[in-house]
């Protein structure tokens, strides 16, 4: 399996060495580490140089939009010359936490999409309670980058709109929650060639560890739940999602 979105630098209960060992012991071959804050850009770059099976995404989270300037953009251009940097992320819109700077979020989102296009890199998209604006902005401004809808939280109908655009759908631990009706429906219906697995560790921990800190090693519970929902084997879900992730990120 490949954990396509995992903030392993934010996990508090284990060291990086322990996280990676535990992940490997549980069938995780590779981990994609996205940046969220400005300081993550250096942190991600350093970590991916140190560990062979960790790859990085650079960008800033919509909640951090106020920090976006030409300086991080320049740094990302420079760092992305390194082959361990495999995409831009996580970027997007978040109308859940703070609605006071939605316009700034949109502006910074567009700038980072253009940066991804310029660098010819895939993008990990954060969309929280902002489905329509996220969709419209990507449709208008993205020119050629592969789009991954990280921690997909929309309806099956919205998923189909995204699929029509050729975007990928990443499913995380929420799919294991008993009441997650929408995500279960999406997991059942998403075309297999567009499906990715992720943990979003340390957040959104799957059952049976729901409520505790999330680790990449727990991605197997998400894979198993998707397999069960689709009447497929765990191995089939592992194989196809690994293939998709390796293709998108060229890893
Ligand atoms: Ni994230």
Explained architecture:
This protein is α/β, with parallel strands linked by helices and 251 residues long. Helix content is 43%, strand content 15%. The chain is built from nine helices and eight strands. It has an eight-stranded parallel sheet with strand order 1-2-3-4-5-6-7-8. Strand 7 (168-171), helix 7 and strand 8 form a beta-alpha-beta unit. The longest helix is centred in the middle third of the chain and has 18 residues, at 102-119. Residues 5, 7, 34, 90, 200 line the site of nickel (II) ion.
Detail the topology: elements first, then pairings.
Layout: E1 2-3, H1 16-25, E2 30-34, H2 38-50, E3 54-58, H3 70-79, E4 85-94, H4 102-119, E5 123-128, H5 131-141, E6 147-149, H6 156-164, E7 168-171, H7 181-189, E8 195-197, H8 219-230, H9 234-249
Parallel strand pairs: 1-2, 2-3, 3-4, 4-5, 5-6, 6-7, 7-8
Helix pairs in contact: 4-5, 8-9
Bound molecules: nickel (II) ion.
Quick recap:
The protein has 251 residues and is of the alpha/beta class.
Q: What are the secondary-structure elements, in order, as H or E?
A: EHEHEHEHEHEHEHEHH
| β-strand number | 8
Tell me the radius of gyration.
17 Å
Describe the largest sheet.
Answer: 8 strands, parallel
Distance between the termini: 13 Å
- The structural class is alpha/beta
Q: Portion of residues in helices?
A: 40-55%
| Distinct ligands | nickel (II) ion
Mean pLDDT: 97
Strand proportion, as a percent range, falls in 15-25%
Main sheet strand line-up: 1-2-3-4-5-6-7-8
Rough shape?
globular
Q: Tell me the number of helical segments per DSSP (H or I, 4 or more residues long).
A: 9
Poorly predicted runs are none
């Amino acid at each position: 399996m490949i954990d396509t979105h995992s903030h392993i630098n934010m996990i508090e209960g284990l060291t990086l060495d322990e996280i990676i060992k535990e992940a490997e012991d549980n069938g995780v071959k590779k981990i994609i580490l996205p940046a969220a804050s400005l300081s993550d850009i250096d942190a991600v770059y350093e970590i991916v140089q140190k560990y062979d099976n960790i790859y990085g995404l650079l960008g800033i989270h919509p909640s951090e939009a106020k920090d976006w300037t030409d300086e991080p953009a320049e740094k990302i251009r420079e760092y992305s010359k390194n082959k361990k940097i495999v995409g831009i992320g996580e970027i997007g819109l978040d109308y859940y936490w703070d609605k006071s700077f939605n316009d700034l979020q949109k502006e910074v989102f567009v700038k980072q999409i253009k940066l991804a296009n310029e660098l010819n890199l895939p993008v990990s998209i954060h969309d929280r309670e902002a489905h329509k604006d996220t969709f419209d902005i990507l449709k208008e401004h993205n020119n050629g980058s592969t789009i991954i809808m990280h921690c997909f939280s929309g309806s099956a109908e919205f998923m189909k709109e995204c699929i029509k655009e050729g975007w990928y759908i990443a499913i995380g631990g929420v799919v294991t929650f008993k009441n997650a009706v929408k995500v279960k429906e999406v997991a059942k219906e998403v075309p297999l060639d567009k499906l990715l697995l992720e943990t979003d560790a340390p957040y959104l921990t799957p059952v049976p560890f729901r409520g505790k800190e999330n680790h990449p090693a727990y991605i197997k519970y998400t894979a198993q739940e998707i397999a069960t929902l689709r009447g497929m084997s765990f191995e089939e879900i592992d194989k196809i999602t690994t293939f998709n992730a390796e293709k998108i990120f060229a890893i």
